[in-house]
Amino acid sequence: MKKKIMWFWYHRLVLFGIVCVLCFSLQFTRVSSFADHDHIDSSAARTLKPEEGGNHQIHCSRERSRAAWKIIQEYLMPFVEKEKYHISRRCRLHPDNDIYRDQEQHKFHIDINEWQCGYCKKSFYQEKHLDQHFDNRHSNLLNSNESQCLADVCGALHCDHEMNSRPKKSKCNPAAAARNKHLCESLADSCFPVNEGPAASRLHEFFLHQFCDAHSCTGSGKPFSRGRRKKTNVFYIFASVLLVMLLLLYYLYIYLYQRGMKRETQMLKRISQSSRKKKPS
């Protein structure tokens, strides 16, 4: 009877510990995922003007600009950060030269079928509907006078290669390859001038190998041959930490259970020994 009572309380203790760990982990994930969201929303609220419809059209592909920005972040910036090099605003790849950068930073993927506008908090089922909302309601926030269209450098950055998961086999156009290579080399010259020091010189050489060498119909070079940013899976880290904590609780439960069994065995031995001593000789 006593053994069953101890097992019951140890079992309840383990379950309580697991529930506490799960609650704490979920709360931590929720807070961390919305921390940046709240911070940007508050700053937007201070600078936001009343909604105004845009009377002018921006002739710049948002989709291709987004693809170009993704390529810059994954295939270029890790190496720039490693060299501790600061890209000049003269470079067309600088964030300030992306006309859609501010709007993209105010776009939040809340759930699978929920996208939210960081300016006015309206929600949409798909990202393309949010893009249309930006064009219709918040085009006045675009700095079209100073910013440039990042999609214009897509040819140099191999946006089509990145956007198409299964690129179609097409005959190479030598003239187009030559134009893209010239644009790519001009980006290398303006973003990483070789006369600005060893870091700029190394990045200049890297940029040529990473992007420019693949602009050829010979097929000798491949885009992004120097690799990309290694992604850290947040959910994998969260699951790993949770698994370690659950294992610790499990082994604590086993330890306490065995310790209780040992004590109960010792008590039974003492009781049996004392009963034997009381028997008449």
Automatic annotation (TrEMBL):
Give the C2H2-type domain ranges: 115-140
- Annotated keywords: Membrane, Metal-binding, Transmembrane, Transmembrane helix, Zinc, Zinc-finger
Q: Cite the GO molecular-function annotations of the record.
A: zinc ion binding
Q: Which organism is it from?
A: Canavalia gladiata (Sword bean)
Annotated TM spans = 234-257
Source species taxonomy: Eukaryota, Viridiplantae, Streptophyta, Embryophyta, Tracheophyta
The protein's name: C2H2-type domain-containing protein
Kindly give the InterPro entries that the UniProt entry links to this protein.
Znf_C2H2_type
Q: Does the keyword Metal-binding apply?
A: yes
Quick check: keyword GTP-binding in the entry?
A: no
